[in-house]
Structures are given as C-alpha cells and as structure tokens.
C-alpha cells in the first residue's frame, strides 16, 4: 500500500497543506488505497511534504507524485481531455501553485492574527522554552521567501487585487460545470479543490478568502468534492 507522508488534519480539513490535500485528491481520483504517516517531515527528500513511499519507492513533490502514479499504475488523470484542455489544465495548476499559493502563504504566515489562529498550532510539539524563537525564525524565513518570489514586495491592497484576479479566473473557468473540464475530475481539479478548500478555512481571514467566498460556484465546488471524496469532513 502507498504510504503518504502528511502533516495531518487541521482547520477542519484532511490536511493543513494544499499540496498534501492535492495529493490525497489524486489518490482518491485514482481509486488507490493509501495510509498516512505524520512523522516524516524531518526525513523529507526535498525538505517538504508531501512525499510517498510505494513499497520502497520514494517520490517527493505533488506533481512528480502525479506523474509517478500515471506511469506506474497505467492511468491518465487527464483522460478524455482535448489537447487544448490539457494545456489549460496545466496552466491553471501553475497559476494556483506558483502564484495563488503564495497569496495564501502571505495570509497565513505574515498576518499576525492569522498566524496565531492557524500556523502557530503547528509548533505545539516544540518545547515551550524555545517555541517563540523557532516561530519567529520560521516566519522570518517565509517572509524572505515571499520577498524573493515577489509577492512580499506588494502592499495589502495590491495583494487583494491579485487575489481577486486569480479567483475570478478560476471561477469563470469552472462556470456551472461539476469539474473544471466537464463531468469528471482531472489533475487540475485536485489542485483547484485543494487551494479553494484551504482558502475557505474560516479561522484565517484574508482578501483571498473573501474573494473565494464571494463565488458561489467555487464554494459549491469545494463542498461537492469534500462530499464525494472526503465525506468525514463537513464544509464550514
């Protein structure tokens, strides 16, 4: 059985990380059974989660996990899509993972209130004496990453505008369809669902959350995929 190294449930979702949740969705779409291990972060091959262990084969990074599953299990997450739809799906995934995601990082880790309501809980196992120092160091590192990526250089008003544009694009693409490209999920849906679900966490307030919450089709999309693939989790 595939072992998925994950952070574990937070915020009323199966995992705190959109990339772990994306991988869970891919495994669910593929009908592949898996177990979870929450102790693997310190051994992560690329210093991040998720990664999988498939009977001794270690694969890190959600995109490379997707490619591995397709090659190893003889499947195609984009089966039935036209070449244009496949290209659009890849473009949407990269918009969400390389731009939208960093807006989420900024909201979670840089905003003091959101940090205390959210990511601060990740440090519960750190000894109390050094916990404030570790939290401060990690937040400083993330702030540097955001500056290097570019979004950390923008004002809150500019970040809100970028969030609205990303969300508008995703909402328009989805329209009134069950999934991004029709009646069946594709690889892009795993990413889109994960990002939308993580954005709607009620404890974490941001323009990104407000933008997603203002789109009934995206909220219904989150609800629909949770019900279909993660029925133990009730949408907030």
TrEMBL record:
Coiled coil: none
Keyword Transferase assigned: yes
Residues annotated as domain Metaxin glutathione S-transferase: 163-225
An example Gene Ontology molecular-function term: transferase activity
Keywords: Transferase
Domain Thioredoxin-like fold: from-to ranges: 18-113
Protein name: Glutathione S-transferase
Organism: Methylosinus sporium
Highest classification ranks of the organism: Bacteria, Pseudomonadati, Pseudomonadota, Alphaproteobacteria, Hyphomicrobiales
